[in-house]
Predict the structure.
Amino acid sequence: MEHRITATELARRLGDILARVRYRGDTFIVERNGDAVARVAPVPEGSPTTLREAFEAWSSAGEPEAAFADDLAKVGAADRPPLDPWDS
């Protein structure tokens, strides 16, 4: 079942919300100032549940497509901090 809650309500009832997600399968849409900003939902079946499993899944995925690798290189080049922080 899907529920809508405020970010404040999530902060106050986090333990209860997580229990409902885990044991009942409930989903919560979190709103801030009336806008949906997050979804708290059960992890899909078969998804990696530990960091180690996530890394193993990533490493077994094979090489990325050339276009994806090019996009990563562009992002990396555009996101470099200045050599001298006082120059900015």
Q: What stands out?
A: The CA atoms of residues 21 and 63 lie 35 Å apart. Residues 2-79 form one domain. The mean pLDDT is 88. The chain has one domain: 2-79.
